[in-house]
Write a structure and sequence with these properties.
Layout (H helix, E strand, L loop, with lengths): L1 E6 L2 E6 L4 H9 L3 H11 L3 H14 L11
Antiparallel strand pairs: 1-2
Helix pairs in contact: 1-3
Amino acid sequence: MEKTMKIGDREVTLRATAAVPYLYREEFGQDMLLDLAEANSKGNTVLFTRLAYIMAKHADKSQTPGGIVE
């Protein structure tokens, strides 16, 4: 599934597929589902920032910066 959203002053396309957990592990070296369980219990927002980055990169690598901090 793809959806274009406005984040800040930019329109960003996000893609959600079965590849997202794999891409998450490749990028961050952690299991997305374990991070999700931890975020659910602690209210951690880092997971959601990481997911948005991965889904944007999955949709269009040219629209995403070289790293999550950028």
